[in-house]
Amino acid sequence: MNEQAATISHAKDTLIDLAIRFGPRLFTALLILVVGMFASGWVSRWVTQFLGHRDLEPPLRLLLARIAAAFLFAFFVLMAIAGVEGVVESITLFNTTLGHVDRSQVVVPNRKVVGEILHNYGNIRQVEITVGVAYDSDVEVVVELIRGVLAANKRVLQDPQPLVLPMQFGDSSLSIAVKPWVAVQDQVAATGEIYAAVLAALRAHGVVMPPPQREVRLIGRPN
């Protein structure tokens, strides 16, 4: 009896957890589908009425109306894309193609994106770089050196302003967060240029960048 009660309780907890995790997403998906269906139907009727005044065959008018409705419904589907990144290159009735900076493509089935979240990154991206310096370094000097490197790089945008500040105490170094903004197409090239320029600037001014270290102590005498 106790085992059955535990099983029922576990199943109940699992259902509640699934409802909390996926309930809002499922509700959003259904809402998008309902709105998309109503909007697509309205567009289909409007296009049919509009083409009714044109000298077109009825089957052609019906086809054009359905195409317009399908494209509108695909737009509602795109509002819920999540999990992949890229620039939308094409939209078909069944797939959405996203392009990446490295010229690769991701083909997403439209049925996979309904109910997800759309994150539009726009035309710029924030590069995230971490620089580790010795604890006895002058933090203000290090920050100013890195800011000078960012100001000299033509790929780095000054609006939004680059972010440079101490971020974390590491095992052997103080981590400095370097987060400049660049155009999407410059992200890879700018990252490499910033790494090289920061390393050169810190070396030129005698700033130590200690490698990771670990101290091991042996307790007791060896056999």
Describe the 3D structure.
The protein has 223 residues and is an alpha+beta fold. The protein folds into 2 domains: 2-112, no CATH class; 124-204, Alpha-Beta Plaits. Helix content is 46%, strand content 18%. The protein is built from 4 helices and 9 strands; from the N terminus they run ααβββββαββββα. It has helices at residues 2-51, 58-78, 139-152, 187-204, and strands at residues 87-91, 95-99, 105-109, 124-126, 129-133, 156-157, 163-169, 174-179, 181-183. The strands form 3 sheets. Strands 1-2-3 form a 3-stranded antiparallel β-sheet, covered by helices on one side. The chain has a 3-stranded antiparallel β-sheet with strand order 4-9-6. Helix 1 packs across helix 2 and helix 3 (139-152) packs across helix 4. The chain is elongated and about 90 Å long.
Features:
Alpha-Beta Plaits, 18% strand, three-stranded antiparallel sheet, elongated, alpha+beta, 2 domains, 223 residues
Order of the strands making up the biggest sheet: 1-2-3
Portion in strands: 15-25%
Distance N to C terminus: 55 Å
* Helical proportion, percent range: 40-55%
Structural class, by secondary structure, is alpha+beta
Q: Radius of gyration, rounded? A: 28 Å
SSE arrangement, N to C: HHEEEEEHEEEEH
The 3D shape can be described as: elongated
Major sheet: size, sense and barrel closure? 3 strands, antiparallel
Q: Give the helix tally.
A: 4
Mean pLDDT: 76
The low-pLDDT segments are none
Domain count: 2
The beta-strand count equals 9
